[in-house]
Design brief:
two-stranded antiparallel ribbon; 4 helices; 2 strands; 59% helix; globular; WH_DNA-bd_sf; Tscrpt_reg_PadR_N
């Protein structure tokens, strides 16, 4: 997790919070959070990086639509991150 960008971590959080979200659903969720447009040229290369790192799996619904899920490793990494954050942030 330490080598991910903040945007990549946000992608993991969105994927974890949805059931097999497709790219457009992830994009729309992040646009609401960031309050600005997320371009495809930013979104999909970062999703591919997460797939390459073994944190996310990419599946196919049809010929045009992919969906994303966290791998077991991705879930462990998110849990470890949240535990680390909890040491410093008490809300």
């Amino acid at each position: 997790m330490y080598d991910l960008t903040g945007f990549q971590r946000d992608l993991l959080y969105v994927i974890a919070g949805e059931e097999e979200p497709h790219g457009l659903a992830i994009k729309e969720e992040l646009e609401q959070y960031y309050e600005k447009e997320i371009h495809h040229g930013r979104l999909y290369p970062n999703l591919d990086t997460l797939v390459d790192k073994g944190l996310v799996e990419k599946g196919s619904r049809d010929r045009r639509t992919n969906f994303y899920t966290l791998t077991r490793r991705g879930r462990r990494e998110l849990e470890a991150r949240r535990e680390w954050e909890a040491q410093y942030v008490d809300l």
